[in-house]
């Protein structure tokens, strides 16, 4: 029973250092953008953990230049994906990212810049639709629990113009966005059954 959808913030971070040979550049003379990125990514993980259990954060897109095995990276571009059902938490994570990354890069002699490249506010789904989903699951005898959707499903956008809810089914080990994602026919049947009865209730076909 999906009650909310997480808000999302995508920030593209660009760290600039100096390309140089990995073998001939002394350690004290290096301006390693790749190392700066690694330390910022560790910060991202710490920030997300500090807002557990619902906040999350990671970098899904990373581009290191010149991407050569014997050249210290002079440039690193990566996108931070922060999510939370609480808009204030998202704002806090964004601020801590910028403050922390700026400090890290200054200490390493690197330059850093930030660009907000995407995002949307958290979503609260319609109480009536959510109630219909919950009632259908109970009436049909299926186990259920309230969930916050971590992904930006179409329902999050439809909810802006029409009452909306979502039905989610379990998948093996909770794995998503992976070719190994798997769901049993029994789980799919239960989800479709709940969806059908919730729709019928909202359409006042059944009481």
Highlighted features:
DNA polymerase, domain 1, about 210 residues, alpha+beta, Alpha-Beta Plaits, 2 domains
Brief synopsis:
This protein is an alpha+beta fold. Helices cover 37% and strands 26% of the residues.
Our count of helices gives 5
Order of helices and strands: EEEHEEEHEEHEHH
Q: Any guess at the CATH architecture of the largest domain? A: 2-Layer Sandwich
Mean pLDDT: 94
The main sheet orders its strands as: 4-6-2-7
Range of strand content? 25-35%
Descriptive notes:
With 207 residues, the protein is an alpha+beta fold. The chain is built from 5 helices and 9 strands; from the N terminus they run E-E-E-H-E-E-E-H-E-E-H-E-H-H. The protein has 2 domains: 2-119, Alpha-Beta Plaits; 125-203, DNA polymerase, domain 1 (Orthogonal Bundle), CATH 1.10.150.900. The chain is elongated. It has helices at residues 33-50, 87-107, 127-140, 154-158, 185-202; strands at residues 2-5, 7-16, 20-21, 56-65, 71-72, 75-84, 111-120, 123-124, 147-149. The mean pLDDT is 94. The two termini are 19 Å apart.
Task: Please describe the topology of this protein.
Layout: E1 2-5, E2 7-16, E3 20-21, H1 33-50, E4 56-65, E5 71-72, E6 75-84, H2 87-107, E7 111-120, E8 123-124, H3 127-140, E9 147-149, H4 154-158, H5 185-202
Parallel strand pairs: 1-9
Antiparallel strand pairs: 1-8, 2-6, 2-7, 3-5, 4-6
């Amino acid at each position: 029973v999906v009650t909310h959808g997480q808000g999302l913030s995508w920030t593209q971070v660009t760290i600039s250092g100096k390309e140089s040979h990995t073998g001939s550049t002394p350690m004290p003379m290096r301006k390693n953008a790749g190392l700066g990125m690694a330390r910022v990514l560790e910060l991202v993980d710490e920030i997300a953990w500090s807002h557990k259990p619902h906040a999350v954060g990671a970098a899904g897109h990373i581009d290191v230049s010149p991407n050569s095995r014997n050249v210290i990276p002079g440039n690193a571009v990566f996108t931070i994906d922060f999510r939370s059902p609480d808009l204030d938490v998202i704002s806090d994570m964004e601020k801590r990212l910028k403050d922390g990354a700026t400090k890290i890069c200054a200490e390493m002699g690197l330059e850093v810049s930030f660009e907000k490249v995407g995002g949307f506010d958290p979503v609260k789904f319609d109480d009536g639709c959510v109630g219909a989903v919950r009632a259908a699951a109970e009436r049909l005898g299926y186990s259920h629990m309230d969930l916050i959707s971590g992904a930006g499903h179409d329902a999050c956008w439809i909810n802006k113009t029409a009452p909306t809810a979502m039905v989610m089914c379990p998948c093996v080990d909770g794995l998503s966005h992976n070719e190994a994602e798997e769901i049993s026919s029994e789980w799919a049947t239960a989800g479709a059954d709940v969806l059908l009865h919730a729709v019928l209730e909202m359409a006042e076909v059944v009481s």
